[in-house]
Design a protein that fits this description.
Elements: E1 15-20, H1 24-37, E2 41-47, E3 50-55, H2 58-72, E4 75-86, E5 89-99, E6 108-111, E7 114-121, E8 125-130, E9 136-140, E10 147-149
Helix pairs in contact: 1-2
Length: 150
């Protein structure tokens, strides 16, 4: 969206990348990704369970969110809010929130008192396979609290 950031003030941002409950590996990955694509950060704000990066580009911010979910699995929520209008064009600020879950593909987890293997962590759901029966269960990320790593 913004090709020439020199025209913008130092605190200018278009998007927010919110990391919540993430491992050090995720934070390292995000720092490397930000540097490799040249995403400008207006500020970063540490909070109790994560960090917020105020970024210069909405599409790059969304791209990092997608890469995080593909690589680490987890809950990814993307929202956009109308920021302003310029010359009859609406400009939006995007918020990308990534929350890492406490388990990964192939981990053993407990769900409803039974043991399952995590088979897939997709963009919208998690697939578990029962350790004894082989029955597969699909769960939405909003049900994540019902799954505990063994």
């Amino acid at each position: 969206m913004t090709k020439n950031l020199r025209d913008k003030h130092p605190g200018y941002f278009e998007g927010i990348l919110q990391l919540r409950d993430c491992s050090p590996e995720v934070y390292d990955y995000v720092e490397k990704e930000i540097n490799s694509i040249g995403l400008k950060i207006a500020k970063s704000v540490p909070i109790k369970n994560g960090i917020d990066y105020y970024t210069s580009d909405n599409s790059m911010t969304k791209g990092i969110g997608k890469k995080l979910q593909q690589r680490f699995g987890g809950n990814l929520i993307v929202t956009a809010t109308l920021h302003t209008q310029k010359k009859d064009k609406e400009l939006y600020r995007v918020t990308v929130m990534f929350r890492e879950v406490g388990f990964k593909k192939n981990d053993l987890v407990r769900y409803n008192g039974d043991t399952y293997t995590v088979k897939l962590m997709g963009s919208s759901d998690i697939m578990l396979q029962h350790a004894k029966t082989g029955k597969k269960v699909h769960l939405r990320y909003r049900e994540i609290d019902a799954i505990k790593k063994e």
